[in-house]
Design the sequence.
């Protein structure tokens, strides 16, 4: 006998979320273990800019499709007087 997989309906809270993406935030457990690949220091999560900021290195690592891109070549350099470093 073969089993058919029936797709489950979307949860009601997801359908009523006013177009807010259910994937619009990173897992807090992931944020706890991620560090700057250069200095191994902590990163600040900037949700509005979709990036992780390393203050000592003055770099902002992008988050693309909810995946942090932790490559120095992909990071954006921040000026020393940038508000992101405050």
Sequence:
């Amino acid at each position: 006998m073969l089993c058919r997989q029936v797709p489950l309906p979307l949860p009601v809270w997801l359908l009523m979320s006013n177009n807010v993406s259910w994937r619009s935030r990173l897992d807090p457990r992931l944020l706890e273990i991620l560090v700057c690949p250069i200095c191994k220091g902590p990163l600040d999560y900037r949700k509005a800019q979709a990036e992780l900021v390393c203050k000592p290195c003055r770099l902002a690592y992008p988050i693309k499709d909810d995946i942090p891109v932790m490559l120095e070549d992909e990071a954006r350099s921040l000026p020393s007087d940038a508000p992101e470093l405050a």
